[in-house]
Design brief:
This protein has 288 residues and is mainly alpha-helical. The chain is built from 13 helices and two strands; from the N terminus they run αααααααααααααββ. The protein has two domains: 114 residues, Voltage-gated potassium channels. Chain C (Four Helix Bundle (Hemerythrin (Met), subunit A), Up-down Bundle); 163 residues, Helix Hairpins, CATH 1.10.287.70. The protein has a two-stranded antiparallel sheet. Strand 1 and strand 2 form a beta hairpin. The radius of gyration is 33 Å and the shape is flat. Keywords: Membrane, Transmembrane, Transmembrane helix.
């Protein structure tokens, strides 16, 4: 494609109006997919739903073609573009019995809102950035859960076998306590025989549900701050580059003016280059 045509297409697909149109189509797709799950509308208007689905698929295909033609190879360097391409391409799979499971990917088209809206894209990118820190905290949480389950099984397997009869039951019980759901009932069953068991449950909840989960929140917030700062840093770098180019152009224009003034003098003069600071004789013709 000629560079001029590609530039015009890139301007079109990057325009706010084009992005808003895509968001509106994705929202409409989400509404129709939700209505299809209800029995009456899907039975009465199945043909209309099918027509709308095909129309939305055609719009998405045209959008993908415009973006590929407008951005060229740069389109395939963005992972979000690959996500959009896979989601849209899955909707084109023939509805055969062996490939019917792939047709379910059309429900993922609603997730394209994440790739279209920049703020949501930043949130997801921050979550991916936080994965190393999240993995470490998750391992710490699993170790705490395992150790607590072993201790609970050793201490209360006789007084509450329904909760701590073996390691598997103990793990499930401690996970239930971790979610802070129905843990008072579990504690009461144990405390009926062991009155001091509340110390074990309260300590586990404080350490796991409060401290460790707050660490998870802190890692995610830190990753989001880094993502926002990186975007601002890129914007600042682009602005500094633009300002640097503008300053250098002004300096070159000043050099050209100095050269013209030096050429108009009747005798040679020392001319200092503003850009590199080197001085040299100006060999200009003497006036008659």
């Amino acid at each position: 494609m000629p560079a001029f045509s590609r530039e015009r297409l890139r301007t079109v697909v990057d325009a706010p109006a084009f992005q808003r149109t895509v968001i509106a189509v994705i929202t409409l797709n989400g509404v129709t997919l939700g209505l299809e799950t209800t029995a009456d509308p899907a039975g009465r208007y199945s043909t209309a739903f099918l027509l709308v689905d095909h129309s939305i698929t055609a719009i998405f295909v045209v959008e993908m073609l415009l973006r590929i033609c407008g951005k060229g190879r740069a389109f395939f360097r963005d992972p979000w573009n690959w996500f959009d391409l896979i989601v849209v391409g899955a909707a084109l799979v023939p509805a055969s019995q062996s490939l019917s499971i792939l047709r379910l990917f059309r429900f993922l088209r609603v997730l394209r809102l994440v790739s279209v809206i920049p703020s949501m894209r930043r949130v997801v990118s921050a979550l991916f950035t936080a994965i190393p820190g999240l993995a470490s905290i998750l391992v710490l949480q699993l170790l705490l859960l395992y150790v607590s389950a072993v201790i609970g099984e050793r201490l209360y397997h006789e007084v509450a076998p329904q909760h701590f009869g073996n390691l598997g039951k103990s793990l499930f019980t401690m996970f239930t306590v971790l979610t802070v759901e129905n843990w008072p009932q579990i504690a009461e069953d144990v405390m009926a025989t062991e009155p001091m068991a509340w110390i074990f449950f309260a300590g586990f909840i404080v350490v796991s549900a409060f401290f460790v989960l707050n660490l998870l929140i802190g890692v995610i917030v830190s990753a989001m701050e880094q993502e926002v700062h990186s975007i601002r840093w890129k914007e600042d770098q682009a602005l500094e580059l633009t300002q640097h180019i503008a300053v250098m152009n002004e300096i070159r224009a000043l050099n050209e003016k100095i050269d013209r003034l030096a050429a108009a003098l009747p005798v040679p003069v020392e001319v200092v280059d503003v850009v590199d600071g080197r001085a040299g004789p100006a060999n200009h013709a003497r006036r008659d």
